[in-house]
Amino acid sequence: MSAQAHPRMGSVRLTTIAIGAFIGLPIAATLVSATTANFAQGPWGGGFTVMWLQQGAAQIGPMLGRSLVVALLVIAADLVIGGGLAYWIARRDSLAGRLVRRLMDLPLAVPGIALSIGLITLYPALRPSGTLLVLGHILFTLPFALATLIPTLRDPDLIDQEQVATTLGASRLRILRSLTAPTALVSSIQVMMMVFAISFGEFNISFFINPPATSMAPFGLFDAYSTQRIEIGSAETVIFLAVLVPVLCGFLVLRRVLSPRKERH
Amino acid sequence: MNRSRGGRTAPALTWVAALPGIVIGLLFGAAPLAVLVINALGVGATGTSEQRGLTLGHLTQVFTSPLLLGQLGNSLIVGLSAVVITTLVGVPLAVGLRRRSEAGHPTAVADGLLTLPIALPGIIVGFFTIVLIGRTGLLAKVVPPLSGAAYGMFGLISAYVYFSIPRVIGPLRGAVQALDLEPENVARTLGAGRSRAFFSATVPQLLPAIVETAGTAAAVAVGGYGTAATLAQGVRLLPVSAVDELTLNYSVASASGIVIVLALVVVAIILLTSLAAGAFRRWAA
């Protein structure tokens, strides 16, 4: 290392710390606000309390459960539907494949509220049951699932192995189970993590689609932000993060454990 | 190479597995977009106070109404300046992080922290701004002029910077990883100053990736609703008015017109930046 390089190391460290503080500070402040009796009097003004957390948990608890169920449904659908679609696109370097890819990437270019307004005007009948919500989440998450799965399924090594297995007389199901699925395992974990984060926090379509009696967690948060005390909004945010972050960490650990050694850092 | 590609390798009936996805894309992606366009032209669904009939008025209102035009301007100012600020900080940071990791320092904590906001919904990012610089915000206690700043331009831009950090720095980290840092080292050896070497040797190589990343991030920021909705008390952004048209005024056609214009703006940002990135790539080659 030359002596010249050191100042930059220092400035990188400083910038990282500054951005880290920028990202971490509001999270810490929300934790403070959630445990403060009266936030208008400053941090822990009026004393420390868990009252808001209890009240917030009672309000957002059922919505968190619903959001978890929806996220699991969307993950399962994305793996099956996205898996099939990714396989087809990956093995077909055709115009049809490229057009379908463009079609599926639509939600990346068109803002979520635009598609949501279109969806509720087109399918009002699917709204009360929550079907439209789940289908909307599938639509919004599929481009991310495809972006991860298509390159994996396009791997020339996998294609060669599948051809060898076919030549040797293995059945389609057998090839899928013992060759294709294991190869796509790490990508699938990546997809599950991404889809979970997007679905669990999705606000645009949840705002329009769900009836008020069966709200999703992000809608509950927004409702608390606009109609209730800042302490309750903070408490519900803390509880939301306490569910979201461990699940994401779980997926990260799983991905790391299942990654082939050469891919580990 | 070609032997293992192409239609021959796809077993028959693979399209059956692809069908559900394509149906969802058509029925729940393309169809609502078409309906939105029809509504926006006044010949589809209309609200109780809206006249049915072919018109461009629902689209052009964004440019003829001073209120909406101002909000479109706000959306562009907030989205673009947040992404520019994040990029200005992000490029040297991404290069620095690569050098740090090559020098044997761990960067996992930094990378984790920089990625975290991508999992947070926009409404939470908006709320964070209120907790810090809202009327009773924690930072506002220390710096009184910041009280209520959450709802002004400063608050919105800060919130959108927070929102954009993972969306800008993540892809830039990937691009920097593939970068040749030797020209910069050579420039330094030949006596160029640190920033001169960085700007003349590294930035040009990275320019296509910078423009592309910034374009994608700006598109997400300009089209985003959650953060803008949470901070809508002061400066209002265009997506908030689109939603209010529907939920408060029940004006389906007007709301459709506004979101179509919003979508066109977002698509224009993506197209322009990817064209610019392509031009830079050809120019560099």
Mean pLDDT of chain A equals 89
Which protein chains make the most extensive interface, counting residues with beta carbons within 8 Å of the other chain's beta carbons?
Answer: A-B, 91 and 94 residues
Q: For this entry, what is the oligomeric state of its chains?
A: heterodimer
Uncertain residue ranges of chain A? 1-6
Helix share bin of chain B: over 70%
* Counted beta strands of chain B: 0
What can be said about the biggest beta sheet of chain A? none
**Helix-strand topology string of chain A:** HHHHHHHHHHHH
Shape estimate of chain A: globular
What's the arrangement of secondary structure elements?
The complex is a heterodimer of chains A (265) and B (285).
Chain A: H1 5-34, H2 51-90, H3 95-104, H4 106-109, H5 112-122, H6 131-153, H7 156-167, H8 172-183, H9 185-201, H10 204-209, H11 217-227, H12 230-258
Helix pairs in contact in A: 1-12, 2-6, 2-9, 2-11, 2-12, 6-9, 7-8, 9-12, 11-12
Chain B: H1 14-40, H2 57-64, H3 66-102, H4 108-115, H5 122-133, H6 138-142, H7 153-177, H8 182-189, H9 194-223, H10 226-230, H11 238-247, H12 252-284
